[in-house]
Design a protein that fits this description.
The protein has about 90 residues and is of the alpha+beta class. The protein has one domain: Arc Repressor Mutant, subunit A (Orthogonal Bundle). The protein contains 6 helices and 3 strands; from the N terminus they run H-E-H-H-H-E-E-H-H. A 3-stranded antiparallel beta sheet has the order 1-3-2. Strand 2 and strand 3 form a beta hairpin. It is globular, with a radius of gyration of 13 Å.
Length: about 90
Amino acid sequence: MTARQMTRAEVLALPPVITLAQLAGALGLSEPTIRALHRNGELEQLGIRVNRFGAQYRAVTASVWSYLGLTAGPNASVRPLQAARESGGAA
């Protein structure tokens, strides 16, 4: 099952590190696909950094933004989300 693809505003509002399930949503892929890509080293080849914390894996959000061609300057993660809420739609 494919995760629901996140909007640009949702991706920019992500915390500094994210779960592989959240990464799947950001990329519009299934979690098993993301886990397979990580196991094969393909996420790192794309420039998406994944760190291990105990038994958990977390992707570095800044590397995801870079892969997607997004930039987040001061308050960039807040403004698009606020604008989407004010307009009643997705950014």
